[in-house]
C-alpha cells in the first residue's frame, strides 16, 4: 500500500548540491578574490566529496555592494571572477565530469548600475520607468517629504530611496543600490526571461531563485501594520511577500523559459528562496507537483532557529526542540502536497550550523560536525552543502572585533544600534550575536591547506580575513586522515546514494521515547515500500546520553562510530555530540 505513494525518481531529487561562494572559494591569480578558474581547478575535489551539482552564488557583472546580489548585467561576468568564456568553460568542465550547474537567479531587483535602471531613472517619461517601482513622496505633518509608505528595508532604514532629479522615490527592499523590479510590467518580465534563456542556452542546469517570493507586491503598496512601535519603519512583508500575482509569474517563467529547456532528457531544476512565507498551505502552493511551479524551496526556518523575535541579531538561543519541530513539519507537509524538500543548514546568509547549533569547541568540533552530517545525510530531500561544511569550517573566532566584519547587513545593524546607544556604549551583546549569525561567517575563505592564506590565495591579500584555525582545519590535512570530518562526509554521501530509498526518498518518523534527553534527536527513516528502516540518533549535548532502544534491539550500526555495533537490550549510549545510524536490514 505504501508503494503507491513512492515519489518518482528524478535527478534533481537525488542531487547533492555544493554551494560555491565564488569570492571565497579559490583565488587562481593572486588578487585576493576567488575566481572561475579557481573553481574549475577544484571540480574533481567537489566530485570526490560526493556532490554531483554545484550552485554558484552570483558571478555576474556587479558593483558588489551586496556581493553580486546586485546585478548590473546578467549576461556578463564580474571582471575579477573571469570572462564569459571562463563561465562557459566552467559549465563544460562540470558536464565533462557529470556535475550539473545551478546559477543564482537574482531578479527581484537589480543593481542601480544596471542599464535598465539607469534608463528607468533618466526621466519620468522613460519607456523603462515602470520597470521599477516609482512613487511620489508623501508629506509629513511638519510639511517634510516622507517615503510613500512605512516599509522598512531588510538591510535597515526605509525601503524607499529618494531620487532627486526626477522627484520620486523608488522601492528598494534591500540596499538603496538594489532597486526592486516591477514584475507587473510585462516587458520587464520578458527581458528577465530572455536573460534566463541566455544561460540555459549555455548549458546551465537550473537556478536557485533569489528572494523568489518577493517579486509580486500588493499593487497599492499599503502601509504595513505597526508591529514594532519602537521603530520608524515596519516590516511590509504582509504586502510584499507572496503577493497576489506571485504564482502567475512563476508559472509564466516555467512556461516561457524552464519548460522549453526541459525535454529530450534535459530537465531544468529550480529551487526558490522563500522568505517570510512560513505556513504549510502557502508553501504547498509553490511546490505541490500539480501546481506546475517550483521543484523545491528553501523555507528558511532552519537557518533562523536562533534569530530573535524582533530581529535576526536579537538573541534567541537554539534549542533541539526547534529543529525537531521544523524537521517533522516539513518532512510530513511537503510529501503530503506531493512536493519536494530542500535539505540544508548552511548558506552564505548566516553563521555556520556547527558553531550555532552544535559546537566548534576543539574538544567536540569533529564529533559535532559529523553529527550534523548524519542529520543532513539522513532526511528526505535534495541536499545542499555550503563550501567548507564538508571539513567542519567554523564561524569567526570570538576574539575578532567588528572591524573584521565586511558584510553590509552586519555593519548596518551594528552601526544603527551604536547610534542609538551612543559612542563608547557596551556593544558586547551585539558582537555576540554577530559572532553567531553574521553572514561573514558563512563567507570566510575556503581552507584548503596550512599554507599562507589557507591555500585560498597565493600572494594576494584575501578580500576577507582567513579564519585563525586554518592550520588545524583544512582540506589537505583531512584528505589523509581516515577519521576526518571530510572522510565522514564522503561516507555519509556514499551511503545516501546507495540507500536512496531509505534516506532521499524515505519517510520520516519522530521518536518520542520516554526518558530520552531533550538534547537527543531520535527518528526513523523508512523506505517507501516499508521494508527498510533506519534509526538515527543525534546527541546535541556535550555529555553522554542514554537511549533506551526498546523495539530496536539487534538493529545493526550502519554509520557512525558508536561503541555499540548493534542496539543492545540496554539500549545505546551516545557520546558527546555523537550521531549514529542503526538499521534493520543487516540483522544477521
Ligand atoms: O540574509 C538574510 C538574513 O540575514 C535574509 O533576510 C536575506 O536577505 C534574504 O533571505 C534574501 O537573501 C538573498 O537576497 C539578498 C542577498 O543579500 C542574500 O545574500 C540572498 O541570499 C538580496 O539579494
UniProtKB/TrEMBL annotation:
Which keywords are on file for this protein?
Glycosidase, Hydrolase, Maltose metabolism
Q: Which molecular-function annotations from GO does this UniProt entry contain?
A: alpha-amylase activity; glucan 1,4-alpha-maltotriohydrolase activity; oligo-1,6-glucosidase activity; sucrose alpha-glucosidase activity
Coiled coil region boundaries: none
Query: In its keyword annotation, does this UniProt entry include Membrane?
Result: no
An example Pfam family from this entry, by short name, is Alpha-amylase
- List residues of the Glycosyl hydrolase family 13 catalytic domain: 19-443
The record's section on SUPFAM superfamilies has: (Trans)glycosidases (SSF51445), Glycosyl hydrolase domain (SSF51011)
Superkingdom of source: Eukaryota
Task: Output the InterPro entries linked to this UniProt entry.
Answer: GH, GH13_cat_dom, Glyco_hydro_b, O16G_dom_2
GO process annotations (BP): maltose catabolic process; sucrose catabolic process
Entry's family note: Belongs to the glycosyl hydrolase 13 family.
The protein in question is named Family 13 glycoside hydrolase
Amino acid at each position: 500500500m505504501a508503494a503507491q505513494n513512492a515519489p518518482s525518481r528524478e535527478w534533481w531529487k537525488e542531487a547533492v548540491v555544493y554551494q560555491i561562494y565564488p569570492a571565497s572559494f579559490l583565488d587562481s591569480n593572486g588578487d585576493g578574490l576567488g575566481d572561475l578558474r579557481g573553481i574549475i581547478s577544484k571540480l574533481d575535489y567537489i566530485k570526490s566529496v560526493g556532490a554531483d551539482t554545484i550552485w554558484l552564488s552570483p558571478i555576474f557583472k556587479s558593483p558588489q555592494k551586496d556581493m553580486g546580489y546586485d546585478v548590473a548585467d546578467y549576461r556578463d561576468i564580474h571582471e575579477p571572477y573571469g570572462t564569459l568564456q571562463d563561465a562557459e568553460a566552467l559549465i563544460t568542465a562540470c558536464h565533462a565530469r557529470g556535475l550539473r550547474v545551478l546559477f543564482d537567479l537574482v531578479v527581484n531587483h537589480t543593481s542601480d548600475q544596471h542599464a535598465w535602471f539607469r534608463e528607468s531613472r533618466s526621466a519620468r517619461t522613460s519607456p523603462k520607468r515602470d520597470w521599477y517601482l516609482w512613487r511620489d513622496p508623501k508629506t509629513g505633518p511638519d510639511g517634510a517629504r516622507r517615503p510613500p509608505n512605512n516599509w522598512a528595508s531588510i538591510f535597515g532604514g526605509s525601503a524607499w530611496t529618494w531620487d532627486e532629479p526626477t522627484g520620486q522615490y523608488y522601492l528598494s527592499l534591500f540596499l538603496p543600490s538594489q532597486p526592486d523590479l516591477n514584475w507587473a510590467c510585462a516587458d520587464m518580465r520578458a527581458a528577465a526571461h530572455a536573460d534566463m534563456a541566455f544561460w540555459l542556452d549555455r548549458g546551465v542546469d537550473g537556478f536557485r531563485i533569489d528572494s523568489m517570493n518577493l517579486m509580486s507586491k500588493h499593487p497599492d503598496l499599503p502601509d504595513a501594520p505597526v508591529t514594532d512601535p519602537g521603530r520608524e519603519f515596519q516590516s511590509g512583508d504582509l504586502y510584499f511577500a507572496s503577493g497576489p500575482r506571485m504564482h502567475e509569474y512563476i508559472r509564466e517563467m516555467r512556461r516561457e523559459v524552464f519548460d522549453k529547456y526541459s525535454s529530450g532528457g534535459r530537465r531544468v531544476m529550480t529551487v526558490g528562496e522563500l522568505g517570510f512565507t512560513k505556513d504549510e498551505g502557502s508553501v504547498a502552493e509553490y511546490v505541490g507537483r500539480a501546481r506546475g511551479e517550483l521543484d523545491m524551496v528553501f523555507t528558511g526556518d532552519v537557518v533562523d532557529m536562533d534569530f530573535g523575535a524582533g530581529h535576526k541579531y536579537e538573541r534567541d538561543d537554539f534549542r533541539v526542540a526547534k529543529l525537531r519541530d521544523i524537521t517533522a513539519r516539513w518532512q510530513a507537509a511537503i510529501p503530503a502536497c506531493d512536493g519536494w524538500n530542500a535539505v540544508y543548514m548552511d548558506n552564505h546568509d548566516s553563521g555556520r550550523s556547527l558553531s550555532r547549533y552544535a559546537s566548534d569547541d576543539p574538544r567536540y568540533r569533529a564529533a559535532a560536525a559529523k553529527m550534523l552530517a548524519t542529520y543532513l545525510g539522513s532526511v528526505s530531500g535534495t541536499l545542499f552543502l555550503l563550501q567548507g561544511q564538508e571539513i567542519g569550517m567554523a564561524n569567526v573566532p570570538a576574539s575578532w572585533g567588528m572591524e573584521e566584519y565586511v558584510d553590509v547587513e552586519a555593519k548596518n545593524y551594528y552601526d544603527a544600534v551604536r547610534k542609538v546607544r551612543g559612542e563608547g556604549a557596551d556593544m558586547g551583546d551585539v558582537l555576540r550575536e554577530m559572532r553567531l549569525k553574521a553572514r561573514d561567517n558563512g563567507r570566510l575563505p575556503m581552507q584548503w591547506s596550512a599554507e599562507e592564506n589557507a591555500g585560498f590565495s597565493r600572494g594576494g591579500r584575501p578580500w576577507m580575513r582567513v579564519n585563525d584555525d586554518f592550520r588545524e582545519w583544512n582540506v589537505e590535512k583531512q584528505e589523509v586522515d581516515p577519521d576526518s570530518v571530510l572522510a565522514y562526509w564522503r561516507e555519509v554521501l556514499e551511503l545516501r546514494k546507495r540507500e536512496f530509498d531509505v534516506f532521499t526518498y524515505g519517510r520520516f518518523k519522530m521518536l518520542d521515547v520516554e526518558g530520552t534527553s531533550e538534547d537527543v534527536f531520535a527518528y526513523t527513516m523508512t523506505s517507501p515500500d516499508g521494508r527498510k528502516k533506519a534509526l538515527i540518533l543525534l546527541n546535541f549535548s556535550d555529555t553522554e546520553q542514554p537511549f533506551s532502544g526498546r523495539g530496536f534491539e539487534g538493529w545493526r550500526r550502519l554509520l557512525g562510530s558508536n561503541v555499540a555495533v548493534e542496539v543492545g537490550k540496554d539500549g545505546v549510549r551516545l557520546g558527546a555530540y555523537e550521531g549514529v545510524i542503526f538499521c534493520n536490514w543487516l540483522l544477521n
